[in-house]
Amino acid sequence: MVPDHSFQKELSSCSVSKLPEGFYDRVEEGSIKLIKNKAENFGFSKESILLEGQAEPIKSDLVILATGFNGIDKLKHIFESPKFQGFIVGKDDDAVPLYRECIHPQIPQLAIIGFSESDANLYTSEIRCRWLAELFDGKFKLPNIKVMEKDIAEWDKYKKRYSYSKNYRRSCIATLHIWYNDQLCRDMRWNPKRKKGLLAEWFDPYGPMDYAGLHSYIRASSPSFREVSFFLFSFVFKILLYFSSFPSC
């Protein structure tokens, strides 16, 4: 079970799995059995499962059939037209070309939520849905096709450089999550700086709770922390100058 790729590649391709405590110990003792089998036929008895190619049935209390699926094929077969199938799939050596990870430049009427992964999929999909709602509500507009394709190409370069090649096309933003959220916030004219204070912005890690309460998001047009701090500093400085101008008794 030792992977043949680095932790960075695993994280960059959203291949990291969170396992329950003591999982590997139970695998070693045999109470959990991991069986890699591509059998097309299988059957169940009262207390076991029989896989094609296995001589003996496997006694089990619980069976998890981790069959997987090909998400790219599912996207492709949304359309009957070969032309649109080619649009959505893109080139074999590129990631699926989605602007902001959810809209194809050539098919702007279609939005795809959940294909691009991260290390926290629930809130990633939630903020994308809010982005779409703002788009449909006319709060902002999509750029032209060339601009969207250029943006997609920039993200594609990063994915080719850092993502695990085996899972490259699945499109993972785990190591770019904060930057990605900043883009969505700027599109919606929200302030991407979610922290309360400059020190927190520099040193406090970002997480899903920083984007909680979507209705209370601060618009980017509102004064930033830096602008407010400068205003207060200028005000206090002027007061000090005013009082220092009086002659001492």
UniProtKB/TrEMBL annotation:
It holds the Pfam family FMO-like. The keyword Oxidoreductase applies. Its EC number is 1.-.-.-. Keywords: FAD, Flavoprotein, Monooxygenase, Oxidoreductase. SUPFAM superfamilies: FAD/NAD(P)-binding domain (SSF51905). The keyword Transferase does not apply. GO terms for molecular function: flavin adenine dinucleotide binding; N,N-dimethylaniline monooxygenase activity; NADP binding. InterPro entries: FAD/NAD-bd_sf, Flavin_mOase-like, FMO-like. Its cofactor is FAD. Belongs to the FMO family. This is Flavin-containing monooxygenase. It comes from Nicotiana sylvestris.
